[in-house]
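Lecture notes, continued. The same structure-token format from the folding unit now serves as the input rather than the output. Read the line below as a description of shape only.
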């Protein structure tokens, strides 16, 4: 007979080894079966030998976190948050949610000031000094990332004197100094700030020109359409008004996209609180949320509920659409374009990675292929390489251009010298790599349906 101890199932008490929370990502980590498909889809891993790839950044780190002493690996800061791995995973592992959360934790752990203070309070000045000494490493890099991530603030300041800002931001010695002291690449030209913001234009025209409680949208213009390309916002307004929509433009802040990519979840949350409060009120008022930037619609529709627990956040996510997507769903856009024509236009279209994640990567080509006067070509499914702030970092610039090479080549092989995309930073990269003028699909819709050829 065996001497092995016997267990009474009724007496068995399960032990909670890991604390479970609403945002617990371990079940997602457990769904990973290590096929490595995500790694082969990662544009950064392809060019940067030191980047271990999404499988490590996601499920493997979350498994390692079961050991209490595991610290987030600093390679998490090299993930550009393109989110292509999300799309690639056959097991629906929430990779980008894991990356965003890990990056947030990594950056939070770098806030050495509080720890130093508590060491001081505990009567350990030597330990406090040591914490400060260690924490200073990478301080400039963190400051640079904070400035890049808070584009909303610098653009808001620049909007008071856009011509001065445009001169200073591209003044050679200033750019050289920014590259040397802060690590912002001097290889790129800063995008020009417009001489008026979208919101100034909106106020000057007296707001909505159409009143229609049955067809109402709230426009989320984001930072770039407001401060740099108000013509995209104006196109959005004119096209939607042409279809009889009443447009609301609620007060809003940055969607948070550059903050997620730089691990600044505290900043992103503060912005999300304002956005969710105002957009939820617009939904109450009968509106659907429409964004002209695919990264903004991605943030509102996916990243917000993945990262924050705020009243109304699920509602905002469920009611958010991209500008062309919403019209295709609710209007007979193809029919309207059948009757229209534009000046001869040969377009090289690039689908942003975040459009791909929302299933919107083919819509521009499908929509404009039969438009009289347009020849449009998809330049392939590669990443543009800039990924928001990633390509602005001195140490990432070469990788960014290497990733973008495939897109540049396809653009150059396509007919014409005009590009098209929905993402403002992809547009920067397309222009930077080819010198082409870049248009937004809403601008072409405006030309076809509102101003005419
Ligand atoms: S693709 Fe998904 S299942 Fe495969 S290794 Fe990556 S995370 Fe795991
Ligand atoms: S988000 Fe993009 S860069 Fe980051 S791990 Fe996934 S595929 Fe790679």
């Amino acid at each position: 007979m065996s001497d092995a101890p016997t267990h009474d199932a009724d007496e068995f008490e399960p032990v909670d080894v890991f604390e479970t929370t609403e945002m617990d990502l371990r079940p997602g980590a457990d769904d990973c079966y290590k096929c490595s498909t995500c790694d082969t889809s990662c544009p950064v891993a392809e060019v940067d030998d030191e980047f271990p790839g999404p499988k490590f950044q996601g499920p493997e780190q979350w498994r390692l976190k079961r050991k209490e002493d595991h610290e987030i690996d600093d390679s998490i800061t090299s993930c550009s948050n393109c989110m292509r791995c999300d799309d690639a995973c056959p097991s629906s592992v929430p990779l980008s949610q894991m990356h965003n959360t890990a990056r947030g934790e990594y950056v939070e752990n770098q806030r050495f000031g509080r720890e130093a203070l508590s060491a001081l309070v505990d009567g350990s000045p030597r330990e406090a000094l040591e914490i400060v000494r260690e924490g200073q490493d990478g301080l400039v890099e963190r400051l640079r990332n904070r400035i890049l991530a808070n584009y909303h603030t610098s653009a808001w300041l620049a909007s008071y004197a856009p011509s001065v800002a445009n001169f200073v931001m591209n003044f050679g010695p200033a750019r050289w100094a920014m590259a040397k002291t802060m690590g912002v690449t001097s290889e790129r030209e800063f995008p020009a700030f417009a001489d008026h913001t979208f919101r100034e234009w909106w106020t000057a025209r007296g707001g909505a020109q159409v009143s229609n409680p049955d067809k109402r949208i709230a426009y989320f213009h984001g930072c770039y359409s407001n401060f740099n390309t108000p013509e995209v916002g104006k196109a959005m307004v004119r096209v939607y008004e042409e279809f009889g929509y009443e447009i609301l433009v609620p007060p809003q802040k940055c969607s948070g996209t550059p903050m997620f990519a730089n691990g600044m979840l505290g900043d992103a949350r503060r912005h999300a609180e304002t956005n969710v409060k105002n957009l939820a009120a617009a939904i109450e008022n009968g509106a659907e949320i429409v964004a002209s930037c695919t990264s903004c619609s991605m943030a509102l529709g996916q990243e917000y509920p993945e990262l924050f627990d705020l009243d109304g956040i699920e509602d905002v996510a469920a009611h958010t659409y991209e500008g062309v997507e919403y019209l295709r769903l609710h209007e007979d856009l193809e029919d309207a374009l059948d009757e229209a024509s534009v000046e001869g236009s040969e377009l090289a279209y690039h689908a942003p990675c975040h459009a791909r994640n929302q299933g919107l990567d083919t819509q521009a080509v499908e929509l404009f292929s039969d438009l009289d006067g347009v020849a449009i070509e998809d330049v392939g499914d590669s990443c543009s390489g800039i990924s928001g702030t990633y390509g602005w970092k001195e140490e990432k610039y070469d990788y960014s251009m290497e990733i973008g090479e495939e897109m540049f080549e396809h653009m150059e092989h396509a007919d014409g010298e005009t590009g098209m995309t929905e993402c403002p930073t992809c547009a920067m990269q397309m222009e930077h790599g080819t010198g082409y003028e870049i248009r937004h699909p809403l601008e072409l819709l405006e030309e076809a349906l509102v101003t005419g050829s």
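Point for the exam: Residues 42, 44-45, 54, 57, 79-85, 95-96, 99 surround iron/sulfur cluster (ligand 2) (CB under 6 Å).
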